[in-house]
Each structure stands twice: as C-alpha cells, then as structure tokens.
Amino acid sequence: MATTAWSPDRVADPAPRPALVITVLASCGLGVSLNQTMVVPLLPQFPQLLSASTATVAWLVTATLVAGAVCAPMLGRLGDMYGKRRMLLVALGLVAVGSALGAASPDIGVLIVARVLQGASLGVVPLGISIMREILPAGRVGSGIALMSSSLGIGGAVGLPVTGLVAQHASWRWLFAGAAVLGIVQITLVFRLVKESSLRSGGRFDVLGAAGLGAALVCLLLAVSKGNEWGWGSTLVIGLFVAAGVLFAAWGRYELRTRSPLVDLRVTARPAVLWTNIASVLIGFGMFAGFLVTTQILQAPIATGYGFGLSLLVAGIVMLPTGGAMTIFSPVSARVSRRWGARTTLVTGTAVLTVGNVSMSLLPASVPLVMLAASVSAIGAALSYSALPLLIMDAVPPTETAAANSLNTLMRMLGTSSCSAVVAAVASGLVTQVDGHVLPSASAYTVVFVAAAVAALGGGVIAALTPRSPLDPALAGIPAARSAA
C-alpha cells in the first residue's frame, strides 16, 4: 500500500535549486549513454588488445545489454518501494565499481564482468525521471524530463569523438577510469543535492517474478543480439525464442496472481500504457539506426561510392551537431508538450525522425548533407524521447512511476537491440568488394534507413491512434495538464 497520497499541494511544493537538480540528474543520463556506447567503436581493436576472439569480444556489448534489461525493472520496482534516490545511488555505485574494475581488468573475462556491472546504468534514467516528477515544481517537470530522456542520445554523440580521441592517443583503460571518476562525482552530487522522494508503494519485493522476467529477457535478448552470429535458423536461436515465449507466458500468469507483482500487468495493459510501450519499441528502432550506421558510412572508403574515408575521431566530430540538436530541442519539446500535449510532441517527433531516416536512405553525397540529415533525425529523436515518459506517467499511479518508466526504457532498448540485429543481418547479406575487402553495399544502408523510417512512422501512427489516459487522479495520479508540462 502507498504510504503517501498524491495531492495538488504537494505538486506545487518547489524543489530546492531545481535547475541544479535537473543538471545533476541529466548528467547521470549522459553517463549512462557514455557507458553503453564507449566500447562499441573499439570492438575491432579489442581482439588484438585482449588476445581474445571476435565472438568473445562481442560479449562486451551483449553482457551490458542483457544485464541492463534485467536490472532496469528491478531497480524501478525497488525505487517505488524503498526510495528512488536510494536506488539511483545503488545503480550509480554499481556503475562506478564496474568502471573501476574495467580499468584494472587483466583479461577479457574480468572486463565482461565489469561490463555486466555497468549494465545497471540502464535503470538510472527512469529513476531520474521519476524523481523529477516528484520533487520538481510543476513548471520545471517537462523541461527536466525532456533533457533527462534526451541525454541518452546526447551522450552517444559526445561519446564517439571522445572514444576516438582516446583510441588514437591513449589506452582504452582510460575510458573506464574516466567513467569510474564520473560515477563517483555523480554519486556525491546526487547524495548532496537531490532529495529523496516521499512516495512509497510498500509491499514485498517479487523475487520469483524478478527471476522469471530476468530469465525471459536473457533468452530473448541473447536470441536477438546473437542471431546473426549463431544463425537465425539454428537450433540454439530458435530454442531461445521458444524459451522466451514460454517464460514470458508463465511469468505473466504468475504476475497476475501475486499480490505484490514486480510489474503490475493490469496497469501495463491499459491502452495508454500498452500502446505507448509498443510505439517505444518502434521509435527506439527508428532512432538507433542513425547513431549506429551514420558513423559507418562516414568511415567507409570512398571507393564504395557512398563512404567518405574519415577516421573514427573525425567521424565523431562530424556527429557532434546531432548532440547539439538534441540539447537545443529538449526544452523545445517541453514547451510543445505544455501547450499542445505530449502526444502532439510524440507524433511530431516521429514525423521528423521519419524525414531524417528517409534523407539518410538516399545516401547524401557530401559530409554537410550527412550532418544535416543526421541532425534532423536527432531532432525527431529528442522530441519523441522527451514525450514518452510524460505519456507513461499520465497513465500510471504515482507510486508506480519508476517501475513504469523502467519498463518503457526496456521497450526502447528492445527497439535498439532489434535495430542492431537488423543492421548486422542486412550488412552481412548485401555486400560489395572494395580492394579485396568485403564491405556493406550502398543498398544495405538504404534498406536499413528505409526500415528505420517505416518503424518511426509506425510509432507515430500508433501514438496518434492511442486513446488518451483517463483523467481520474486515482488512476493517473497526476493531472494530464501537469504531465504535459
């Protein structure tokens, strides 16, 4: 049972130094993005650096992905039960320990363990968003959530040139050491400047439900992330998909019967929540294509007919405007939501994201045109990502915001994971030979961006057709006008 009731008076209570609170929490989101992506540009070098096979090195990404998927809903539920700031500090602590371990790791095995600990960072953003909802004054909630949600993309854009610079001039261990220092600084700032939320859902933690969901997610994400490597028709991948389906069915049956579930499926099944989560999968797919593929195009040899032959560092610098675009349009999205509603912001964002992906599918012939098309996609992603948490929070009780936001973050991650799988399959299936090297063909990237455009458009259509959540405070816990603020 909730120990504190939601009241309009409590909503109006100003949080101390709201701008500072927003900055601190958004910096945590930035750190999440850096942790998730910092090893990706270095994957081709790690087999030689760590004396490991390419398949083993790929676990540096897969382990973080799977660990994050398992941790996010658990941290969200624990945050609703025992305090969101408390669980935020736990997540940041795990990330700091994992980063320090990564900096000192003697071999690939220890480094994979470090990346598992860093996976806890995926729970940071939904916890931060839920804290903002509770402690910020009404007029600052929308802009804070927009910046926190968009920080994932901003960090990805900033992380590319940073990784490139470190790769060229220093050891990869400095990336992990820097992440450890950043984690310690963020723990200190959150502890000193962010107050704990007062709402508690109470109840007992659903250990069996957490184990069931974790097992189902491990099966699903392993199949999606390793399908191209192991073979989509292999017995192992098909078996993982079947196991995931069986486990999800059994888990859902159990969650509906237990008194204190990890995820309240009855709330999740409300049309406003269910369809927003489905749209989030598609939007995650549509957003991630630009971040994943654009740098590959920039670094591809000129002889391919579409590449520009840039170094990793220069390609990262070219992508910096995308981070700037997301930073600028995050507060814009808050103003659009305040005036016309979060659904309008989401539909607009998906339309802009669709245009950006279509533009990239034409394979722009110059670097400035690539920058322009990528920036358009980034603007669409910023608008879309900032609106999703507002729509979710408008449809769930205030005592379940962290769990609901964690589930929505998980849905976005499923979209990005699916995008990675599609890119890998298409890039390995449509190839060309350049100077004796097998590389993705121009048609491969066209197919990827067209698929991303279709996904973004589908997400927008779903958002436009999704019924509004009921304006019943007992159901939503927060007036619709404020959720769009």
Description:
By secondary structure, the protein is mostly helical. It has helices spanning 8-12, 18-37, 46-50, 54-57, 59-82, 84-104, 108-118, 124-135, 138-169, 173-193, 207-230, 235-257, 265-268, 271-299, 312-340, 342-361, 367-393, 401-429, 442-465, 473-476, 480-483; strands at 431-434, 437-440. A two-stranded antiparallel sheet has the order 1-2. The model is unreliable at 1-15 and 471-485 (pLDDT under 50).
Secondary structure blueprint with pairings:
Elements: H1 8-12, H2 18-37, H3 46-50, H4 54-57, H5 59-82, H6 84-104, H7 108-118, H8 124-135, H9 138-169, H10 173-193, H11 207-230, H12 235-257, H13 265-268, H14 271-299, H15 312-340, H16 342-361, H17 367-393, H18 401-429, E1 431-434, E2 437-440, H19 442-465, H20 473-476, H21 480-483
Antiparallel strand pairs: 1-2
Helix pairs in contact: 2-8, 2-9, 2-10, 5-6, 5-7, 5-11, 5-18, 6-7, 6-8, 6-10, 8-9, 8-18, 9-15, 9-17, 11-12, 11-18, 14-15, 14-16, 14-17, 14-18, 14-19, 15-16, 15-17, 16-17, 16-19, 17-18, 18-19
Task: Kindly list the characteristics that best describe this protein.
disordered N terminus; 77% helix; mainly alpha; two-stranded antiparallel sheet
The mean pLDDT is: 85
Number of helices: 21
Q: What is the CA-CA span between the terminal residues? A: 28 Å
**Main beta-sheet strand count, sense and barrel state:** 2 strands, antiparallel
**How much helix, percentage-wise, in residues?**
over 70%
Alpha-beta classification: mainly alpha
The run of helices and strands is HHHHHHHHHHHHHHHHHHEEHHH
